[in-house]
Amino acid sequence: MKFSIITLFPQLINAYISESIIKRAIEKNKIVIEIIDLRNFGINSHNQVDDYQFGGGKGMVLMVEPVVKAINSVKTADSLVILTSPQGKTWNQKLANQYRVQEKHLIIVCGHYEGFDERILDYVDLEISIGDYVLTGGEIASLILIDSIARLVDGVIAQESHQNDSFENDLLDHPVYTKPVEFENKVVPQVLLSGHHANIEKFRQQGRIKNTYNKRPDLLKEENLSIEDLKYLQELKNTKGE
Ligand code: ADE
User: Fold this and answer.
1) d(Cα 112, Cα 183) in Å, to the nearest integer?
2) What is the mean pLDDT of residues 154-164?
3) Does residue 85 line the site of ligand 1, with CB under 6 A?
């Protein structure tokens, strides 16, 4: 899968993708990340990319021409063009999965400053927001899109690592533990040390349901739960999540 990021701050993107799992995914040719410096498409001798807004008001606005030229420099018939913006559709795990399966090439335009010329919207397929708050720019948002999709690409991380991720199947993930077995009288649940796979899986499924019930009850969809899961949910309700 290929990502083309159009940004005024290429170093910000570069710093993140040069480390850790994303770096390895690039090295293993699982994903391709292309950084396009919007400044290269600026107009006039100053490579200008923004200007004051008509009608007056504070802040600089991204101009339509540099953005459209930058998009056209990388766009193909397979591209989906996304603009990061607090006004966009809110990003979530389902969209990450959907794009991972359906898209070959995402062009992500990082919004900036006080906003962008409204006419840019005619050249993008959709706006995506990463949440109901306003960032200084779209770089962090674009990295969130890339990171959340890239880890779903085959071979980037072990498949079982994301099969039971939080939000998959509308449940949060179960609690996990590592060494030591005991810390300040807090002990790892015995079943995890038992080697009994069926019991461990049951404990984990109940952990998913309990976590979701206590932390994000809005996610719980009873129609997705088995009869056994529903029984456990009823027990939780009776004991107020204990
Ligand atoms: N740019 C500024 N705020 C943003 C947000 N919440 N999501 C995506 N891009 C943004």
Assistant:
1) 47
2) 86
3) yes
pTM of the prediction?
A: 0.93
Query: What's the domain range around 203?
Result: 169-241
Nearest-CA residue for ligand 1 atom 4 is 86
Helices (H), ranges, 108-226: 139-150, 159-163, 197-215
Element (H, E) at 89: strand 79-90
Q: What residues are paired with 129 via a beta bridge?
A: 90
Q: Which of 66, 127, 151, 208 is catalytic?
A: 151
- Is 8 found in the same domain as 87? yes
d(CA 95, CA 229): 26
Residue 151 bears catalytic tag:
yes
Q: Do residue 217 and residue 179 come from a single domain?
A: yes
219 CB less than 6 Å from ligand 1?
A: no
Q: Identify the CATH number of the domain in which residue 124 sits.
A: 3.40.1280.10
Q: What is the CATH number of the domain that holds 178?
A: 1.10.1270.20
Spacing, Cα 225 to ligand 1 middle (Å): 34
Average pLDDT value over all residues in the chain: 95
Are 70 and 147 contained in the same domain?
A: yes
